[in-house]
Please model this.
Amino acid sequence: MDVNAAVAAVAAIAGVLTGVIAMLAFRWSEREQKRPTRSSLHTDAVLPPGVDTVLSVLRSSAVVLDEADAVVKASSAAYALGLVRGGKLAVEPMLQMARDTRRDGEIRQVELDLPRRGTGRGEALAVSARVAPLGSRLVLLLVEDLTEARRIEAVRRDFVANVSHELKTPVGALSLLSEAVMDASDDPEAVERFAGRMQIEATRLTSLVQELIDLSRVQNDDPLEDAEPVRVDELVAEAVDRCRHQAGAKQITMAAGGTADLRVWGNRGQLAAALGNLVENAVNYSPARTRVGIAARSVNAPGGDHIEIAVTDQGIGISDKDKERIFERFYRVDPARSRATGGTGLGLAIVKHVAASHGGEVTVWSAEGQGSTFTLRLPEAGAARDRAHQQPARETRAGGAGLDVEAGRSTPESPESNAYETLPAPEVLP
Model:
């Protein structure tokens, strides 16, 4: 009997202990659920009302930090710039600014150059960072990417400096020559010589101003507003006529060939200027008694048929280091020769802008001492595609080879060449 009572007493005590433990566990669970977790501190709920909506429409990269410097919210642009990594602000100067602003409540702004992610060339990312307090505990960081703006500003400064230099040369020459004419008023032969030089400098100045106007128009206008189907044959004939006098003076023969009856879609004036610049360069940089070839063909491309117009010369050629820069404004492979031929260094820049604005491109193949081939590639006009059943386009290898217009065959192949393998029955234009 005493044993049974003892067992019952032990069971009662065990039941009471189990109940107490269960109640304590329940209370502890409730307390843990009410306690704010680390993740709950970093949700949008801690942001003041309306801030989340405002941040979502800002163009700037936005980062919100709490009192522990942890990231509460960050825009996708902030991650793309590499500002936020692992839930922390990864740029130490910005982090220090945030701490200073949290301490004294002052708004701070600074411009920084940050290493660009994913490149091993040490390229800098220019940014402007602005830090301001957001409520009593949070700090807001706004970052603007200034890289493109700085690049444009550098281009503008270089352009102004180059234009000033290029204009100064002929203007200074005209001033000196006019003084020389006045001093030599009693010497008719000297006056005639100085007047001839003045005419040359005035022509160079006129060409420079006109090409600056053309470049400005190409960059600012939309060529497709007045677009129309333009016959390639007419563009080639106009370019040849433009350079006929210079070619005749150097006894250079121009040969035009390729596929007939091709059309491109675009602004006729701009296309004529671009092709004319290519042909004029070919004539100016070719030795006397050589040939310049102009040929056109249609090529199939995934985005639609294109027309390629190649201009090939037998001139001095272009080195590999110069080929990367020849389409820059005012850049000249041989400055002395360019000035002698009246070149301004803007012709190829105009060609590049015309090609890009028409949805095409311009490429170059060249070898020093062997000549150059510039290829203007433009979208074909839709009205010209119905000629395909009459004259199938010849298939050529990608890259092509340099065009030898004198023999009607290709020069040794080069992977960079964009000319054609053959030039069928070229029309020789004296």
